[in-house]
Amino acid sequence: ILKLEDIQQVFFYSDGLPDQFSPNDLKFGNKRFTNIVLENNDLMKIKSEIIKKWTDWKGDTRQLDDVLLIGLEF
After folding, report:
1. Number of Cβ within a 10 Å radius of residue 64
2. How crowded is residue 63: how many other Cβ atoms within 10 Å of its Cβ?
3. Could you tell me the pTM of the whole model?
4. What percent of the chain has pLDDT over 70?
5. Do residues 65 and 14 touch, judged by C-beta distance below 8 A?
6. Reduced to 3 states, what is the DSSP secondary structure of residue 10?
7. Position 74 pLDDT exceeds 90
8. Residues 17 and 54 sit within 8 Å (Cβ to Cβ)
9. ∠ CA 18-45-73, rounded to 5°
């Protein structure tokens, strides 16, 4: 159980986000996602940074799975 007064943002995402490979056969990973969230405090900035960094990471590599990301701010 999460106490909503203790948090400001919650993110839910499918495995397609961290499991995407780069051209170097490395996964995007949960840590990379977490760092983007921790480095930004505005939900819209987080959204644009994730889209940019994930797209750059993927490069020309074929997308392997669907990607779902939901961010909620309280």
Report:
1. 13
2. 11
3. 0.80
4. 92
5. yes
6. strand
7. no
8. yes
9. 85
